[in-house]
Amino acid sequence: MKKLIPLLMLLFAMPSWAERQFDIEVIIFKRAVNAEDINEAWPNVLPPIDYKNAGSLSSQAYLARKGVTRLPPASYQLDKQEENLRNHAGFQVLLHTAWRQGDEGQSNAPEFHIRAGMDYSSQFHPDGSEITASTTSQQSPIDGTVEQSLPKPLYELDGKLQVYVQHYLYVDALFDLKKPSIRDVSVEETPIDFSQDTTNGDENVQFGHLQAISPTVTEERFLKPYRLNQKRRMRSGETLYFDHPLMGMIVQVRKVPDK
Questions:
Q1: What is the spatial distance between Cα 120 and Cα 112, in angstroms, rounded to a whole number?
Q2: pTM value?
Q3: What φ, ψ does residue 79 adopt, rounded to 5°?
Q4: How far apart are the first and last CA of the chain?
């Protein structure tokens, strides 16, 4: 019986180990800089972000399934950092939020689809091309009326964030910050016809009615994505800063004291 008592005490203590809770607070901001003035190679097209396993912080069903609780602003501990960012002309805060979650591994930890900032859906299509009179799609008139579908929001900041435990705490961030830009498109081939045959000095080789091609390059506005893709290891209670030429993120993970 005496040998069973320590074992029973151990079993009763084990759930507390497995039920560690962490408060996660996040600030995401953008920099007031022109992306074209930065000496970086920015691709015009990026691979799409996979949101298959991601859920929204505003979805009560997803929060309940993952054991997540949204935290009220009164519990925030990064208010001073947000104030400093808002008072600086070089930064604009896009998001400040916090939640509580367990210490799940990467396969089970909540993965949040986060969107914030300006909605560009009235100016650009989802593929980034500009909405113009010629590209606006309308359905065929029915009984003299024209039906037009409402565009889905196209947010300035779009991406996903996951905090999980794998011996250490990890923060995995993948975000696109979208900004209007200019790209060269529509290379048109303009033929120039030569009316007479010419030779290149070799009588066996003749060029008849060759067409010289004069390319025409036009410019158009489009919504260009700039990606932040970083995974960092951190400790409980640490404040982590994710740096990027056009944006930044501050993350603090705090272990909830045992009751």
A1: 21
A2: 0.78
A3: -65, -35
A4: 29
Both structure tokens of 141:
């008139």
Beta strands in the chain (DSSP E): 21-31, 69-70, 91-102, 111-119, 155-166, 168-193, 198-199, 206-207, 211-234, 239-243, 247-255
Choose among 204, 144, 174: nearest CA to 48.
174
Spatial contact of 128 and 222, defined as CB atoms under 8 Å apart: yes
Sequence-separated contacts (24+) of 90-93 with Cβ below 8 Å: 90/31, 90/32, 90/33, 91/29, 91/30, 91/31, 91/32, 91/248, 92/29, 92/30, 92/32, 93/27, 93/28, 93/29
Quote the tokens at residue 134: 């010629």
Please state, in angstroms and as integers, the Cα–Cα distance from residue 186 to each residue in 20, 117, 198, following that order.
Answer: 56, 31, 31
What does residue 164 show for φ and ψ, rounded to 5 degrees? -145, 170
**What stretch of H or E contains 236?**
none
131, 64 in Cβ contact below 8 A?
A: no
pLDDT bucket at 15, cuts 50 / 70 / 90: very low
Tens of pLDDT along 231-255?
999 999 999 999 999 999 999 999 9
Compute the C-alpha angle 36/241/236, nearest 5°: 160
Contacts for 67 with CB less than 8 Å, ≥ 6 apart: 101, 102
Q: Please, what is the Cα angle at 128 between 40 and 248, to 5 degrees?
A: 45
Q: Give the pair of three-digit tokens for residue 138.
A: 């309308």
Distance separating alpha carbons of residues 160 and 50, to the nearest angstrom? 9
Q: What is the pLDDT of residues 60-110, one digit of tens each?
A: 999 999 999 999 999 999 999 999 999 999 999 999 999 999 999 999 999
Q: Determine contact, residues 128/144, Cβ cutoff 8 Å.
A: no
